[in-house]
Design brief:
heterodimer, A: 9 helices, B: D-Maltodextrin-Binding Protein, domain 2, 16 helices, 6 strands
Chain lengths: 302, 399
């Protein structure tokens, strides 16, 4: 049974239709990527799931039913724009947010020091929020999202303002959460992070679903016969079976002619005496898929 | 209650809050001190005439010159009869005269005819002079009457201003209560307005509403800020009490305050409903606007109509039932100050009090409802103001 089930939701703000007939399901123990360009309706969708906005039509189920006050404590939310009291000490601010999530003072006292240590914020716990860098505030916000041990995590741009070390730390934490069975909905523009973390994704633009499904299956769907090779010699002119050659630094992208398989191309290259350092079937990056689908989607929508 | 507690502690634990609590009375004391200094410097040095029909006063005191912060002590000059005193007053040789009638020892009443209104030092000097004279007299004085003090009736030279001794107490009570109400409502309402706008500005709002309901959030903030207002009020009343206790010997007039229960109940009702109304109005504004800068402008829109009864205090004093005070009594923003002020200076028809109270209550309920709606509509409007007309449109969903 899915942890989050969104069925045909639509939401209009005045004359703007922010979300149009969006449906998807998020399963227990998976990291689900909610992707889309700026203004595509991601945040509105998240707010509908969290019952901040109410949809005009369709339904949302989270943890076996509609969102209610009691379920708020079972959800951890990291908004895109950071929301922390700037003139309050880190420790006091996090304690208050944890209290609002139903934690007792004893529970907070038992868990908060561990989280502060894990995110390397112990030395800053008495500092006011505004004295922290953006990256540190982001980590503090993540503590507020995780501390009450929610069953569902909804995180919007979790890697913004983080350096590579902290990005890795957050990725590790998200993987840990998945391993213990937490359901994670992650919205981000960083496709490389989606590729390394997400199990399934949905891509929406202008409020409409453009792509939805298993990440690998989607990437395979966009895979062509193109081959990426790395060679220290130039390719002979007019090689049979090759439609086009695209140079990208040391890597050449070869697009075979209709009916030519990667195996045929490899045989031709070997026969022609090309000294190959690497040979691989070009799988499109998620960035490429994103750009292609959004551009195609725009044409269709317009 | 968590939100209320946090909101309360967040402000009360701040040094600035306590600085404000002590700074306001200190500022008032400073202003009083300055005004005393200037009024003492410009005090009338002419003597006060005494017409002593029962021949009570044997010797007239000679006072030493005090420092610049001491109220100048009056010089008393005896006159054989009222005609000669009046002639001296008309020719500006004296600033006033007190007429002690032959019946004084039974009535303890004195008429005071003045060119310039009596000052507290003249009055206390006269009272002391009479008390000492009675105690030194041959007849056994009525100790209870002496304890109560002399009752003065004041009349200006041209006869236009007549009042009895403690009339000013009637003025000071509504003005002081109104000021206390104004400062309290502005401070706690201001905290509420700023708290909401700040949470929108620093985006805390989104975190909050995924942890608690909008109703609990706004309710908690209102309760927390009311607590702040009450704390301030309690502190000031305590300071006032301590001050009154320390200076009780100099504040003998306090014994003459007769608080009318009708006045007290009506004032309390107006101020309580007014407090909720104005706080809700500020909450509503906080939810619809997007920056603290804008909040300052909107505060002005509330303060000006609210303070109109004070700006027009002279109209209230001279003619409390004229058209302007009556209009201000029916206008919800000015009513909490206008009605108690009118009651302090005259008699307000009961129907007017009831109508004014009903209007204020209706606006109070409407504003609380609108504030809740504005909060739901505007809590996540970070960039755009919520147009007022949207508050009156049917709410299909909590967007």
């Amino acid at each position: 049974m899915p942890t989050v089930s969104v069925a045909h939701i639509s939401k209009r703000f005045g004359s703007t239709e922010a979300v149009k007939d969006v449906s998807f399901e998020v399963n227990p123990g998976e990291i689900f990527g909610l992707l889309g360009p700026n203004g595509s309706g991601k945040t509105t969708t998240i707010r509908i799931i969290l019952d901040i906005y109410r949809q005009d039509s369709g339904s949302v189920s989270i943890l076996d039913g509609p969102m209610n006050e009691a379920k708020k404590n079972l959800v951890g939310y990291l908004p895109e724009e950071r929301g922390l009291y700037q003139d309050v000490q880190v420790e006091r601010c996090l304690s208050y947010l944890a209290t609002l999530k139903g934690m007792t003072q004893d529970q907070i006292a038992a868990k908060l020091p561990g989280y502060l240590e894990k995110f390397d914020l112990t030395a800053y716990k008495k500092k006011k929020m505004k004295e922290l860098s953006k990256g540190m505030q982001q980590k503090a916000q993540l503590i507020a999202t995780l501390i009450h041990d929610p069953k569902v995590l909804i995180i919007d741009e979790p890697f913004s303002s983080l350096d590579p070390v902290n990005t890795q730390l957050v990725k590790d934490i998200l993987r840990e959460q998945r391993e213990v069975g937490k359901t994670i909905i992650m919205s981000t523009h960083q496709m490389n992070q989606v590729e390394t973390l997400c199990d399934r994704i949905i891509l929406i633009d202008k409020g409409q679903v453009l792509l939805y499904g298993d990440l690998h299956e989607i990437r395979n769907r966009f895979t062509t016969n193109a081959i990426l090779i790395n060679s220290d010699a130039n390719l002979p002119q007019g090689m049979p079976g090759i439609a086009s050659v695209e140079e990208n630094g040391l890597t050449l992208k070869l697009t075979p002619q209709e009916g030519i398989t990667p195996q045929d191309l490899l045989n031709t290259l070997v026969k022609q005496g090309v000294n190959l350092k690497s040979f691989e079937v070009a799988t499109p990056s998620l960035d490429e898929v994103f750009i292609r689908v959004v551009n195609e989607g725009k044409t269709k929508i317009e | 209650m968590l939100v209320a507690q946090y909101e309360y502690k967040r402000h009360v634990y701040r040094r600035g809050f306590w600085v404000a609590i002590f700074a306001v009375p200190l500022g008032i004391l400073l202003m009083m001190g300055l005004s005393m200094f200037f009024s003492f410097s410009a005090a009338d040095k002419r003597p006060i005439g005494i017409v002593d029909e029962p021949q009570l006063i044997k010797t007239f005191p000679v006072y030493e010159k005090g420092d610049i912060f001491s109220e100048p002590q009056p010089e008393f000059k005896p006159f054989p009869d009222e005609q000669s005193a009046r002639a001296a007053l008309d020719s500006s040789q004296i600033q006033a005269y007190a007429f002690i009638p032959a019946t004084y020892t039974s009535t303890y009443k004195v008429d005071y005819l003045f060119d310039k209104p009596i000052t507290s030092s003249i009055q206390s000097g006269l009272s002391k002079l009479l008390r000492d004279s009675l105690m030194q007299g041959k007849a056994i004085p009525n100790l209870t009457a002496i304890e109560r003090g002399t009752e003065f009736t004041f009349q200006s030279l041209d006869g236009t201003k007549t009042s009895s001794e403690y009339d000013w107490l009637k003025i000071i009570i509504p003005i002081a209560t109104g000021l206390l109400f104004f400062i309290t409502v502005m401070m706690s309402g201001g905290y509420l307005l700023r708290a909401i706008v700040e949470e929108k500005e620093n985006r805390t709002m989104e975190m909050m509403i995924t942890s608690t309901s909008p109703t609990e959030l706004i309710g908690g903030k209102i309760i927390g800020d009311m607590g702040i207002g009450l704390t301030q009020m309690t502190m000031w009343v305590l300071m006032l009490g301590v001050g009154a206790f320390i200076f009780r010997d100099k504040l003998t007039f306090l014994a003459h305050i007769n608080l009318d229960w009708r006045y007290a109940v009506v004032t309390l009702l107006f101020m309580l409903i007014g407090y909720v109304f104005i706080c809700a109005l500020m909450g509503m504004m906080g939810a619809t606007i997007t920056s603290t800068q804008e909040s300052q402008q909107f505060m002005g829109l509330i303060i000006i109509p609210m303070m109109l009864p004070y700006y027009l205090a002279s109209v209230f004093i001279t003619s409390s039932n004229s058209i302007v005070p009556r209009i201000l009594s029916f206008f919800p923003l000015s009513a909490p100050l206008a009605v108690p002020l009118r009651m302090g200076f005259g008699t307000v028809p009961t129907w007017e009090i009831i109508v004014s109270l009903v209007i204020l209550l209706a606006f109070g309920i409407l504003t609380v409802w609108l504030a809740g709606k504005a909060f739901r509509l505007g809590m996540l409007s970070y960039e755009q103001k919520v147009p007022l007309k949207r508050l009156f449109q049917k709410e299909a969903s909590h967007e």
